[in-house]
Structure formats: C-alpha cells, structure tokens
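User: Can you write out an input/output pair for a complex, sequences first and structure second?

Assistant: Here is one pair. Inputs:
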Amino acid sequence: MQEVSFFKERVYPILFMVFLTVVFISAISGIYLQTASLVEENETIFLKRAVLFSAGIPVPESNNEINRVYSERVKEYMVNGKPGVFEVNGGESYAFRISGPGLWGEIEALIGFDEDLKTMTGIDFIKQNETPGLGARIEEEWFKAQFRGKTPPFSLVREDEEDIDPDEVNAITGATNTSNYIRDMINRSPGQAAELLEEVR
Amino acid sequence: MARGQAKKVFVGAIGADNPVFAQILGICSTLAVTNNFRNTVVMSLGVLFTTSLSGFTVSLLRKKIPGRVRMMAETLIIASYVIIVDIVLKAYLPDISRQLGPYVGLIITNCIIMGRAEAFALNNPPGISLIDGVASGIGYSYVLLVIAFFRELMGSGTIFGFQVMGDWWTNWAIMVMPPGAFFMLAIFIWVVKGVFLKEKEEAKA
C-alpha cells in the first residue's frame, strides 16, 4: 500500500513530465527543422535588401532577383564574425553595419557612402526596438530616403518643415529622443566607416 | 456535450464573463500591442490559436495530469503552442514577426490562457474546452481590435497603415504611447460596464 502511493505521489509525476516534455519538444523540433531553412533565407534576404537599399541600388521585388543583383554587385567583408562592410560595384560605394543606442535598445543600421566616405547613398535599419507608431517610424520610406545624396553632419528640423538646407533633415514628431539618437549615430558614422574600411583592407 | 452549455460558455466569454473587461486578464498585451491595428490582428490570432488548442490539450490530458505538477504541464503545453506560432510567423510572415518582436513569446504569460486551462479545461471534456478556448480568444481579440482601431485612428490617422484622416487631423501622439492604452482601455471598460452590463450589475445588488 505504502509503495503504491509512493509511486503515485513521487515517481508518476516525474515520469509524466518527462513523457510530456519529450512529446512536445519533439513536435516543436520537427516544426523548427522543417522551417529552419526558410527562416534563415528570410533573414539573409532581409539583410541583402537593406544593403541594396542603403547603397542606393533599386531593390528588386522577388527574392531570386535580390539574390542575383546582390551576388553580382556586392562583396561582403566580415567584421567581428558577421558581415560588416559591404563593397558595392567594386568600390564605387560602401555600406557599413553601424550601431548606436536607441530609446529602448540598440539600433543597428546599414549606412551607405560613396567612395569618398562623405556623401551618403542611403540608410536602412536592420535592428530597432523603438516605440511602434513613434520612434519606429524611422523605418518609413521618406525618413530613410531623405539622407540620400547628403553629407553628414546633420541637424534636425521639424517633421513638417519643407524648406530644408542640405545639412538638415526632418525629425519625427513625438520621437525626439529617437530622432536625436539617429542623428548622432549618422553624424558619427563617417569616422567609423573609415575605421571599418581600414580594418578590412 | 449539451448544446445549451456550449452556447452559455461561448456567450459568457464574449459578454458578461469577457476575459479582458470582466475578468481584467491579459491586460499586459492589451496595453502593449494595440497601437497598431495590423500587429493587433496577428497578436489576436496567436492568442486565439493558443487558448483554443491549449484548452483542448489540457482537457484531453486532464485525467492523466498529476495534481502537483499540473501547472508545469499546462505551461509546457501553452509554451509549445506559442513557440509554434512564433516559428510559423518567422518563416512565413517575417516582417510582422520582426514588428511584434518579443510580444509573441509573451503570449505564454498571458493570464487568460493559463486561467482558462486552470479554471475550465482541467474540469471539463475536450469539446467544450475547445469551445471555451475559442470563445475566450474571440472575447480577447475583439476588445483589442476595438482599442487598436481607436488608437491607430487617433494616434496615426491611419487604419491598417492606410491614411484615413484628412489633412485637418492632428495626430494625438499620446494615443500611440503607453498612456493612450490605459485611457482607451479604461474608457472601454467604463462604456461596456455602464451601458451593456448595467442591468446585470444592478440585478446582483
């Protein structure tokens, strides 16, 4: 009698949890393995799209086209174990993986420059946790596109200001901190870009 | 299963026993994801999927789950379904997955799901537990969608990212920030309790 209740009280719960864990983890692992290649492909496509965009190259619609254009035109250099410098069209322009602080977490961007490393060809964000609807609007097309062809350092003007000088960019209303972080990150970037390029050469 | 019971469970979760405005559960995600309609839709679907299937699974196993490890078992079951949602989003909807970020994983800690598993699925057969899960998911979802509708409309002037309001409209930045969520949720609960659930409250008193 004693032993039966010992089994029921102590052993059965452990066996039950082991069994349940094995069943569910196997199911999840199966689904994970099924989709792993797709997930990985999504991530590389995301990065390639960002490189092309920041280098000022029109980004094709289909994934196949993106892969083709990318492999034809872009050469990757590793920095700290991941692609950090991207040489475009044999050195006509470059994109750099540059990060800086954000409001809620690190912001990581690809910033593209002409070969002189002064004029920007574009910017795209690959990691940001800014407030959705406010700071996260840095992902909007108009915000990213306004840097193209301009030379940092920049100062910020209001979002609705239409009369802007070449060294000014529109900030985002309601996201003053995020706008300042982006401005600082970009203003710092030419120096960092030169260092990165030095490092990989 | 009796048809009457199913109907009662379903109507209850959507109306008088609604998980959000009657039981005040799942408030964390209600506040966090409702500033953007599209994210809210995906979040709602994720919760709906998880409440339904976790309720069903817990109920299937209810006679086998030892009492003292029942919460561990429930958490394992819930977490598994949530991870499936996360993997599927990463594979097939990478953009939305990126926007929702950590919130999908946080479905695991959504009290509605654990609450329904504990309060309902452990004591009821699988069929009715599934209905209870679906109803709770729908009850949660429509409240979020209503709140998200007003927050995105007033905060960004858009719905689903499409511009709805004209040039005359000034966006209320507070609506997309966390305080806007508290105001909207409070107003929602106030209206629902004041207008729709009034008779019930009075009858009780």
